[in-house]
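User: Here's a chain of 542 residues. Predict its fold as tokens.
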Amino acid sequence: MASKNIHSKLLGLSISSAVLLTLGWPMFGFFPLLWIGFVPIFFAHYLIHTNNLGSLWVFVYGFIAFLGFNLGTTWWVYNASAAGGILAFVLNALLMTLPLMVLHKFAIKHNNPIRIWPFIWAWLAFEYLHFRWDGTWTWLTLGNGFASVPKIVQWYEYTGVAGGSLWILWVNKSIYQLALRYQNLDKNTRLKKIFNLAFFKLFAPIFFSFYVLSGWKDFKENQSFRYSANVLVVQPNIDPYKEKFDGLTAEQQTQIMLNIADKNMDSSVQLVVFPETALVGNLNERSLNEEETINLIRAFMHKYPQVNILTGADSYKTYLPTEKPSETARSWDNGVHYDVFNSAFFLSQNDSTIRTYHKSKLVPGVERLPFSSILKFVEKFAVDLGGTSGSLGIDKEPVVFNESPKLNIAPIICYESIFGDYVTEYIKRGATLLCIITNDGWWGNTPGYKQHMEYARLRAIETRRYVARSANTGISGFIDDEGNITNKTDWWVATSAKQKVFLNTNKTFYVEYGSIIGEIALLLALYFIIGLFYANKLIIKS
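Assistant: Prediction complete.
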């Protein structure tokens, strides 16, 4: 009976963590719940350790908590592919459970389940590596949880989202330890610890955020001259299932977008942005100016001689006999090799050559097969989250489209906008405006497209750049350099939005130095893990 009661408590604690983290996540509700979301699973681990239940149960109940978190926040992936969605939920939950196992092994070695720093550094290291390996699915990076309240994380310009992840875990650790020791503390000690928790760990980072924001506002006001550009983003609202790749021709879709743009055009607009895979039909990159969709765009640009066009496209490029095919290259029966791309094209009034960028951060299981040499069997579980699927070619580095000395455009395609470190590479190459082109219609009217929009607010803060966002079915619009959404469109309507955006040429600390927290976490996690196997004793104070 006692064993049954223990497991009932453990199950309840695991489910509590899943519910709290889910309800604290954009777009579900109350972000302060993130500060207590890990506390139940920490208590579950404490019970398992003190009752000598074994490592298996740490894994089981940790997996239940993190699987619930994945399901509760990203269930909409299931809309695109049932089998692929389930695979994504299970694999990501398994990875999230690994830091808990590090904590448990540390607790066994030192007979102390109260120290949580091993878990924190292992989790931050997991997030850091998750951005950089073949199976990346970084949607649930904890720092993304503050995307809907950008005013309290303005210091992301120094830390990136890793700072938010550390904040969440640090507060959870402190609340767990205070709750565990509360009954054994005298009244004065209790009050002191509660004050320290509330002021130094909760309110101080928020106060610092407002201080940083105030400094950024002062900096902008003191600039003697701020460069700007007028941008129009187009939302064609072409159904990705019924029209985009079957129901409408490529020319019809292009004309729909141009007609929408035309209704909102004037002589001040310098840049028009179309969404991901706006141009369909597998355009041949060796003869783009012969494509009918390109000719339609050129005719539109002739009407407005000041305007430039950024558009998504699905395209391919053949390899010449003297060129070495890439690892992702395919071949026709005649032996000619070619690569297929999810592309961004830039058409300029100043250049007849169409500049191209090929999406680099590809969606695992959709646009590329992770660990293709050993996991070929999982290809049938591919999740359809974009217009172009299969093993795609990539550009190894970001490409910036430089139109003028100050209008330098970062073409960020869909999933790439989740990668803060990658977006900073555009800034290092001179980008003054972030343009996110995406097609979020695959998920339906779910939290998925809303979360995707919210996450872009964090990229604006990290880089202090305006964002122009064109989404096929929504949400399109603009985000200023403080993370505020402006002039946004509604979901599932054919429309456009226009705004003046300001162009910043300065680099933030995060752009210059990257994720220092992630790098430190990786080193400390290795220290803990090596210590579990080789060191006789680790002296670590929590």
